[in-house]
Amino acid sequence: MSEKIKITVVTGIEKPNGVDGSTNTGNLTLTQESAMTLMPLLLKNHLMDGSFCGGRGDCGRCVVQFLKGAPLPTGLERSRLEPEELRQGYRLACVTRPKADCTIRMVETEQEEIPIVTEINLLSENIDLIGRKNGLSENQKPVDMKSTIKSPDGGEKNGCYIIAVDLGTTTIAMQLRNADTGETADTYCERNPQQRYGADVLARIQASVDGQGEELRRLVCGVILRGLGQFWEYLRGKGILCMCIAGNTAMEHLLLGYDVASLGRAPFVPVETGLQKIAADRLLAGIGNLPENPQGMDGEGIFGFPVYFAPCISAFVGGDVVAGLYALGLLSGGRSEDRGQAVLFIDLGTNGEMAVTDGQRMIVTATAAGPAFEGDGTMIGTDRIALTARLLGRGILDETGLLEEPYFTEGVRIEDGKKDVESGNQNKNVHYIKQEDIRALQMAKAAVRAGVEILWERMGRPAIEKVFLAGGFGYYLDVEAAVAIGLLPAYMRGRVQAVGNTSLAGAYELGRDLSFDRTAGGWLEERTVLAESVNLAETEEFERLYLKYMGLEEN
Question: At what angle do helices 213-235 and 249-256 cross, to 10 degrees?
Fold first, then answer.
């Protein structure tokens, strides 16, 4: 067993001491075994939020500076940090292993704010392409929402609410909506705090397998409690009809406390894909002592409402996609005409999910995109796409994805000015886009294009009459830039509609219909079971198409 060493942390700001619950300003002395890396110790004591790469040393967000007792840099650190930085004692907490007593300083890494989209843009002349309600029998159609809501004891209850939750890998959004009118009373958003264990699903699956599953669950439950705390003023004297949560398969499994080991290895079989229902007090059991738990909420029966989890289609196509398809009316088999036409649904983030339907048949798939579309903490993905298209147009970047010198070595410097509302001063933010950023974008977009083409081929090469881009990525995406780099086929110009947060919209609609229509759950599971799921890793043509679309060019 390795020896214990003392690590003195100089923070300069007040931080909670995870050991005894107290707070410290300035120095904090901790102990750990010399064989361990710094990251687990800093996470345990709330001194670091984590890393986007899950501790692989790729993102550089866990930089600390050794003021005393710096260990020799690892090969990975030599490749990620400049020689002068290494001489000044900078190291990566996820890989460095102090061998003796030392003093470190926390380095604040500036993180670009990721906009959390809660807007919903479903109203369109084209939205009734495959209307869900047209495909429902009379007893399956939602009841008139103007009807009186009944409380659990059978009496009339006015002012009931539905809480819709979009449980994203990067962000979490909650909306409090009136069950009768659909009006949004309040919205709560924050980053998914599970990011401290990695930006992607696979990193969090591994963290859960390594014994952090309960902590991952508690982190999301804490967000839900904070959201409820904000909604509390609206809820006094009223009631919650239900909460409906829509997230990818892994995010839902982690929150439900399921074993996720099978999601991280072939053949990638989920523990459960069907519609799940659990009482809120059971979901939040064991975390009532969190400081985020709002005052006065315990003991008033507020946690007695049901929580629904949107059903999943496969390990890679989860409840967020199902909710989005439900909101858009694409789950129905209600159309028989125009058999040569189809609709494409794309939701791009840390995971890229796609679905194509001709009104009778639906085929879905997903691909791991990493932070290329969501952003890596320094620049959001849509900005990176727009910039890449601009560099391509100026000849600084060629179609193979290579930057010309000196940008290949140094990266391209970008300055943006943001006006401070309070002071009126113009603040300049400096970002760099490097060769590795371009490569990451190429790999992500090649996988997406290959996935889209495979779905199109499997569907029989129909004409794509409409493309729905869901989520924050689609909401802010410059379609012309996406076409210029080959992320979207050129023929999709004029057919793309950004529909906003369809996961959030679908969560509300699911919660409403499940609350008022007893047949809705069975119908929903029937439609998701009928969807055909394609595993791209097992598809022969994927590698060929992936290589075909690695280039940055309109096609």
Answer: 90
Q: Are 127 and 328 in contact (CB under 8 A)?
A: yes
**pLDDT tens sequence for the chain (555 residues):** 568 999 999 875 444 444 344 444 568 899 998 888 998 888 888 787 666 566 667 677 788 999 999 999 998 888 888 888 999 999 999 899 999 999 999 886 655 555 677 777 764 333 333 333 333 333 333 333 333 344 434 444 456 899 999 999 888 999 999 998 899 999 999 989 998 888 788 889 999 999 999 999 999 999 999 999 899 878 877 789 999 999 999 999 999 999 999 999 888 999 999 999 999 989 988 775 544 444 445 444 567 899 999 999 999 999 999 999 999 999 865 444 445 689 999 998 777 899 999 988 999 999 877 667 766 555 677 888 998 999 999 999 999 999 998 888 888 877 765 544 445 555 555 667 889 889 989 999 999 999 999 999 999 999 999 999 998 778 888 999 999 999 999 999 999 999 989 999 999 999 999 999 888 899 998 899 999 999 998 899 999 999 999 999 999
Q: How far apart are CA 409 and CA 435, in angstroms?
A: 8
The CATH number assigned to the domain holding 486 equals 3.30.420
CA nearest to 473, candidates 387, 328, 374, 354? 374
Which of 39, 73, 106 is the last residue in one of the domains?
A: 106
* Domain span holding position 449: 341-501+536-548
Q: Domain check: are 401 and 419 in the same one?
A: yes
Q: Is residue 541 situated within a structural domain?
A: yes
Residue 201 lies in a domain: yes
Whole-angstrom Cα distance, residue 442 to residue 435?
11
Q: How many CA atoms lie within 13 A of 259 on its CB side?
A: 6
Residues 135 and 219 in one domain: yes
In 376-490, which residue ranges form alpha helices assigned H by DSSP?
A: 381-394, 407-410, 435-458, 471-476, 479-484
Whether residue 223 sits in one domain with residue 346: no
Looking at the 3D structure of the chain, how many domains does it have? 3
